[in-house]
What we know:
By secondary structure, the protein is mainly α. 72% of the residues lie in helices and 0% in strands.
Amino acid sequence: MSAPWKMLVMGVATLTVWAALAEGHGFGGPGGGGGMGxxxxxxxxxxxxxxxxxxxxxIEQIMKRHRTKLEPIFDQLHATHDELAAKLLAPGVVGxxxxxxxxxxxxxxxxxxxxxxxQAALEARAVLTPDQLxxxxxxxxxxxxxxxxxxxxxxxxxxxxxxD
Length: 164
């Protein structure tokens, strides 16, 4: 496979993954139906913290409030990814300068998502007790260890990339 075709295939594959991640935009967050950066697992992690009914209600309200702000951004990001895919797959010559504005817009939207997620996480964090925060830290350590174990089992990514 020639280098230009490899780049095109990788670009389309990347866009497909981005679109799939943006599509599953419950309160799982940016970066995928599940990962606040690495912390979009926050909603799932909160379930492990033995919240009181009052805390559950407060966090549900926080998430609901932020979800209404995030959904339009996810919709815009999905449209931007579609636009980028359309440009990459359009007939004729496509150069980096043709894609730069769309890529910059996607970056701005991702930054907005991250800022909103961080705000939601900070508000939810304020509801937790010190013991619950300590338990959350332990859960995160266990998840980090699990990811490291998965990488050790699966091995490193091939040097030349997946298309070699």
